[in-house]
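Case study.
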Amino acid sequence: MRRRSIQMVFEARQGHPGGDLSAIDILATLYFGVMCYDPNVPHDPGRDRFVMSKGHCTGALYTALAGAGFFPEDELSTYLKPNSRLNGHPNRTYLPGVETNTGPLGHGLPVATGIAIAGQINAAAYRTFVLTGDGELQEGSMWEAAMLAGHRKLDKLTAIVDRNQLQQGARTEETNSLEPLADKWRAFGWAVFEVDGHDHAALLGALAAPTAGKPRCVIAHTIKGRGVSYMQDQVGWHHGVPTAEQYAQALGELTLEEPDA
Amino acid sequence: MSGSPAPLVGMFDCRDAFARTVEALAIENPRIVAVVNDSVGSSKLGKFRERFPDRLVNVGIAEQNMVGVGAGLANGGKIPFVSGAACFLVGRALEQIKVDAAYSGANVKLCGISSGVAYGELGATHHSIEDIAWLRAMRELTLIVPSDPAETAAAIRAAAAHEGPVFIRISRMPVPELNHTDPFVIGRAEVMREGSDVAIIATGTLVHRALAAAAALADLGVSARVVNMATITPLDEEAVLDAARDTGAIVTAEEHVVRGGLGGAVAEIVATRHPVPMRILGFDGFQPTGAAEWLMERAGLTADGITRAALELRNQRQA
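After joint prediction, the assembly is written out as follows.
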């Protein structure tokens, strides 16, 4: 999946590879280890929902959705091409598997909260997952939703924070610090788990642990650009396109990392 | 000034029709829910809450979240009526209205309550007279401005039956029940009075004033058509073109600024497809504190003001 998302960015000459690579283990865990869905019935009322609040990381999202069977993997090569369904930011009216359109930050958690409230009213069994950036938590609308979800004890709602420490321009803690982040979520009434966001077993454990009637927050500690040496933890790779040489190096490094992929 | 104003006999607050209709729909359809921003009272949804406590979602004072939650409820199969004061719902949550509702094509019904200058004395922060312009820029968002209680009720029912995002601009300024010639249909203008010398195209609280103006104009020998443009998006372009062709002069009237509202919408059609002289009646910018009716008079948004504008247009044409 890492290789495929880097290939998409390389071929499209645009994208957000750093965030794609920090989020991709989380997406892989959700789509291939946690969520219940049928890609042939994308609007099944009982499906688990995933909302990509950090909507710019479509390289990772589309790789996951294709792998999950929502559309053919061949279509990934149309990423960002004119009229492609694979828009720069996800669009539910173009592509099955996308629950709501995102792109501007601060939208996903409120919508996911509404989905979870609908489930609460219906006493439905489905779960709602939302992946947020860490810099995105500087948006006030996220905390409006966090407050409501805690108040309503939405225990079928899970927010996963891609805590890669970097936002577009600099480190989050240098820009407008988020810490103590776990305490903030706890104060809003959430059960908080902190894990290595590249450790699938740890993610699975945090996503399954009981929350005593509270919404779940998983702070996934990740590395932006994870798996590609020159991108890792580098603010300059929020968006950017590798040169041919860099691309070959990235594929080589990612092959070593994922020999069975 | 002190004491209560005299009761307005035969005049109605459209919020009552809104609340009554949402309650009636909720009885018929379990998918109907209401979402409010601590606005149960101002949206008159107290009875709804008593009857359906589990189907009223109060997000507190958080309009961005309110619209996002509404889109999420629609994703979960609900038909949410998201209701709050128009000034805050539109101004504060405009990006959520764009992205979560309009661009996502979510089945959300947004109800802007107490729109226009209804909160007259509270000042320009609480006036919602820019909202039509902001919302009209999105073709993908159906935008309805009902003129009286019956049309408000019909618009709420039509919105519930329509698959997709709808914004309904609801007034609290007292209006009379009008004698409608046609049932309300989204996207269809209603010719409420025929006329050949000038057409008055009005929306919302200006429709009854336009009818009064047409009656006054008739006494002066001027035959004025009155078009109730209850749907702003999609605009009934044919009704605009008919008015331009048949009368050759158009006055528009709305409880909104003169930039980008109904007047702008009509002018876009008239200027590009059948140019005729126009007058656009509305507010010219932020308004001071003062009673709503005083603000309306000051801006010429009265039967007299519309009559004057129509006469000026006719005189200009004859000159």
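Observations recorded in class. The mean pLDDT of chain A is 95. The CA atoms of residues 49 and 128 of chain A lie 5 Å apart. We will return to this complex in the next lecture.
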